[in-house]
Amino acid sequence: MLEVSHLSKRFSDKYAVKNVSFQVNQGDSFGLLGPNGAGKSTTISMVTGLLSPDEGEVTMHGKTMRKHPKFLKQRIGLVPQTIALYDTLTARENLEFWGTVYGITGSKLKDNVNWCLRVAGLEDNTKQLVKKYSGGMQRRLNIAVGMIHRPEVLIMDEPTVGIDPQSRNHILQTVKDLNKQGITVIYTSHYMEEVQFLCERLAIMDHGQVIAYGSLNDVRQLAGTLATITIEAQGDLDSILKELQQDLSLKNLQNRDGALVLQSTNAAAAVSKVVLAMSQHGLQPANINVEEPNLEAAFLHLTGRQLRDGGEGAV
Ligand SMILES: Nc1ncnc2c1ncn2[C@@H]1O[C@H](COP(=O)(O)OP(=O)(O)O)[C@@H](O)[C@H]1O
Ligand SMILES: [Mg+2]
Asked: What is the Cα–Cα distance from 155 to 246, expressed in whole angstroms?
């Protein structure tokens, strides 16, 4: 649906983005993860048509940003990294203003404004001036403004930076709900937990380039780390240990104080195999815990650095 192919951008002679390609499918929740300075915002600026690439192309439904900027911009919503609101206006006035910028008027404008206020959880604060808002409320309104034209794709650039944990959770849940409603999401962050929570597919950027791309599971497993699975059960676990050891996909099997502990590259398949074996031996699985390899480990493996340490100008 949205295709980014071989995008590059230089500032003076330094590449901010170099040969970046990825594809976002309809209904995706796609993550763009990388430390500060990785080139995420520059990429987003090109995808939204705010910045023209030196090389490469952005295509949506077969039409390019270069030739059909209006077509793409109508279908893409941007929530910028820095808050872009008029703080002497109310939430409703801000939304109405941005709606008219998109050429939306009359009852459609009213409907869209009400929808945005509801989604952002700001229905009770519509008459308050934005400058009286907390940081978290401003962030939420900033997101609402990005959706005023009801875009197919919502692109969010680090929407949780600098806000309290409660507002952060609200935003993450809002993004998840929007995606469930069918809105395609591109979510940029340097927090791997957020991308892990929200995204099924992602690209990891570092120094302007994509260094990993694919499904969350594929990328997580780049470090070669295995998921660790713990299954507690009543009964004689040793009786099935030998049988399960025959299966080479189940690694490092142990009976640890009434719990079967093992590792696997495919946690879901491993759990179902073990649970099946248990039920065949009359054992009742009680508690199942899966610890997947994480994106932090993948980033460390790929770059030799910690993601949370950030890059240039890390916060
Ligand atoms: N307008 C600009 N002029 C010069 N350099 C820039 C400009 N915008 C970004 N850069 C540089 O490009 C690189 C990528 O920046 P950016 O896309 O903002 O990264 P991120 O969003 O991942 O933190 C950084 O080294 C940054 O300093
Ligand atoms: Mg940025």
From this structure: 47
Which of 12, 18, 42, 186 to mutate to test ligand 1, by most ligand atoms within 8 A of the CB atom?
42
Residues with CB under 6 A from ligand 1: 11, 16, 34, 36-42, 312
pLDDT at 186 exceeding the cut of 50:
yes
| Ligand positioned closest to the Cα atom of 38 | 1
- The secondary structure of residue 49, as a DSSP letter, is T
**Count of CB atoms situated within 10 Å of the CB of 60:** 21
Counting from 1 in the atom list of ligand 1, the atom nearest the Cα of 17 is 14
90 has pLDDT over 70: yes
Query: What is the residue-averaged pLDDT of the chain?
Result: 91
Tell me the C-alpha distance between 60 and 38, whole Å: 24
Scan for tokens 């142990």, then name that residue: 254
Nearest alpha carbon, ligand 1 atom 6: 11
- Which domains are seen in the chain, by residue range? 2-221 (3.40.50.300), 226-291 (3.30.70.1510)
Structural contact between residues 31 and 199, judged by C-beta atoms closer than 8 angstroms? yes
What is the H or E stretch that residue 240 is in? helix 238-245
CA 40 / ligand 1 centre spacing (Å) = 8
Q: Whose CA is nearest to atom 3 of ligand 1?
A: 11
> Which tokens in the block code for residue 69?
């900027």
Coil, strand, or helix at residue 193? helix
